[in-house]
Each structure stands twice: as C-alpha cells, then as structure tokens.
C-alpha cells in the first residue's frame, strides 16, 4: 500500500462531514461541527493552515551534511522525529462509524509506536473511552500520552492514576477543551481552570505533565509557573473559539517568554515535513498533528499511520538536507524566509 492509496481509501470510509480534501485547509468544512471544521466562520482552522504558507525555506547545498538525523529526545525517550499524533475524540460523530474512540485509539497508538513516535489520545463523556485509551497505551509499554479534559479536579486526578497504572510516558490536559460546548450537550460540561487548581493537579503526579491549548504569553507563563513539563501552543484546531490567530503566528513570542522554563510544542495546521521544519525553526521542540492521522487510520489502519509517518520523515529529512541541517538543533529561524 502507498500513502496515496491510503488517502483514496479514506475518501471511501470517511463521511459525510469530512471530504478528505487534497489540501486539508479548513475551507470546505468551515463551520461543520459535528465534523472536522473550525467553529463559526472556520477562520481559526483556515489561518492555522495558511500561516505555514507565509514562510519559505532558504535552500543551501554548499555544506557537508549527507544524512540528516531527524531524531529527538523528549519525555525521557528518543523518537524517530519530533512529531506526535494529536488527541482526537468522538470519531464516530465527526468522521464515520468505521471506528469508535477505542478502536481508533488502539490503531493510532500502535501505529505510532511501531513507526517510532507516539500518540496523544483523547478523553470522552463516557469513562470507558479514557480507560480504553489507557489500556491501548499500556499494551504498547506506555508509549502514548493520555489527554484529559478539564473536568473537576477530583476526576482529573482519578484519571491521572489510571494513566500512571498504564505507565504512560507523560500525561496531558487539553485545557482549550473548555470551549467544547458539544460535551455540555452530552451532559458533561467542562470549564476553564484556575492556575492554583492546575498547580495542584500537576503536583499530584511525578509523570511529565503537558498543557495543550496555550495561545498567549500570559497563559504560557501561568502554565510554566504551575509546573508544566511542556505546553502545546494550540487553538484546538479552531474548533473552540472563532476568530483566533493561528498557532504558528503566536509561537515565537511564547517561546521567547517561556522557552527557558518549559518545552514548547505546536499543534495546528501541520500537514507535511516542510511544515514540521517551519515550526521547529520558529522555536517549537515538536509538533502535534490531528486530522491527517485520522485520514491515515481510516484509510489504512496501523499501516496507514506508518506510511504517513514515513512520508513526514522523508519530507523533513529532505528539507534538512537542502538547508544544511545535520540535526534537529540546526533548524533555526535563519533557515526561513518570510514571504
């Protein structure tokens, strides 16, 4: 199977909301929720994709680099490349019933582990969703990051204990899910969380704790001060608040503010190895990707995940070779040109 065949299979298996567009840019699905679209006008999702088009790579082949090293060390582990699958939930509602949250999580967790990276997994209204993802992670020797919604503190800590029992390499919270009104419609609302509560939650575990959904310097400082191992600059794919800037647009200022205190990752609009390169050049230590991994799973299950990861690696490696970067640390802002 090729990745092109994976995409063609996904077109047959996903629908009717997601069109598996040639460019997953948020235009055809804007405002489509349930479905993969951005909230309201959809501009948050669209901006995430378009922000990457605003940068070009500075080609330079006068160097001695022959085989770039795309590997990275994070969370006490070494990964094939600085890319992780982002948490995705309610796949039956948004994509199709070929997979449910448990079977999707098992496929993406196993596929990512086999491909040399790892997946962040989702949470849900029903407790068996989170418990099932923890089981999938445990089966892969802990190679996965269960991601908890901002529920009540007691429930969050209970879910942390489940993640610890699964020996997960880290634990995350997508604090930006506070804007998911679809959860309230299902009878289990989420809400914003105070810095003090977040600090208590992080202190309750020795596992690296990652906060996803940071979009301002002020929020980044609060998360860092609360003890976050890492933060993920993300507007939740544009799905929780309309009219947000893109994740990439605010990345550099957040790195400048807290990059010496905590690891900064980026989520939103990353589609290719070239996009990975651009995010790293602007200060991210790693990126998360969501919708293309859904396409990979629906189009090729675990093999589809591996094929997509391999494509990202080939694209990132080529970008490094053609810009004179022998290792990830060599990818710096001077390798980019603002267009």
Automatic annotation (TrEMBL):
Keywords: Flavoprotein, FMN, Oxidoreductase. It catalyses: (S)-lactate + O2 = pyruvate + H2O2. Its cofactor is FMN. The keyword Oxidoreductase applies. It holds the Pfam family FMN_dh. The keyword Flavoprotein applies. InterPro entries: Aldolase_TIM, Alpha-hydoxy_acid_DH_FMN, FMN-dep_DH, FMN_HAD. Gene3D superfamilies: Aldolase class I. Residues 37-339 form the FMN hydroxy acid dehydrogenase domain. It comes from the Bacteria. Belongs to the FMN-dependent alpha-hydroxy acid dehydrogenase family. This is L-lactate oxidase. It comes from Fusibacter bizertensis.
């Amino acid at each position: 199977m090729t990745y092109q065949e994976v995409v063609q299979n996904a077109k047959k298996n996903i629908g009717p909301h997601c069109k598996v567009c040639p460019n997953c840019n948020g235009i055809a699905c804007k405002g489509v929720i349930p479905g993969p679209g951005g909230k309201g006008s959809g501009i948050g999702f669209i901006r995430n994709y378009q922000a990457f088009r605003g940068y070009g790579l500075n080609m330079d082949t006068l160097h001695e680099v022959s085989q770039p090293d795309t590997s990275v060390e994070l969370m006490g582990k070494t990964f094939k490349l600085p890319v992780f699958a982002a948490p995705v939930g309610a796949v039956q509602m948004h994509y199709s019933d070929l997979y449910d949250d448990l079977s999707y999580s098992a496929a993406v967790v196993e596929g990512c582990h086999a491909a040399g990276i790892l997946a962040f997994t989702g949470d849900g209204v029903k407790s068996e969703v989170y418990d099932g993802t923890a089981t999938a992670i445990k089966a892969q020797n802990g190679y996965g990051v269960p991601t908890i919604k901002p529920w009540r503190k007691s429930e969050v800590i209970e879910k942390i204990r489940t993640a610890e029992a699964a020996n997960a390499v880290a634990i995350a919270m997508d604090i930006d899910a506070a804007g998911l009104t679809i959860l309230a419609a299902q009878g289990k609302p989420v809400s914003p969380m105070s810095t003090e509560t977040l600090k208590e939650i992080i202190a309750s575990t020795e596992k690296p704790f990652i906060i996803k959904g940071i979009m301002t310097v002020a929020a980044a400082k609060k998360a860092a001060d609360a003890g976050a191992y890492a933060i993920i600059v993300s507007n939740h794919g544009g799905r929780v608040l309309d009219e947000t800037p893109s994740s990439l647009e605010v990345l550099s200022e957040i790195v400048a503010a807290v990059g010496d205190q905590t690891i900064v990752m980026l989520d939103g609009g990353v589609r290719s190895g070239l996009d990975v390169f651009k995010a790293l050049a602007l200060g991210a230590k790693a990126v998360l990707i969501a919708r293309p991994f859904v396409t990979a799973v629906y189009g090729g299950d675990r093999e589809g995940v591996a094929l997509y990861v391999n494509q990202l690696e080939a694209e990132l490696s080529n970008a490094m070779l053609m810009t004179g970067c022998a290792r990830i640390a060599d990818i710096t802002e001077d390798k980019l040109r603002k267009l």
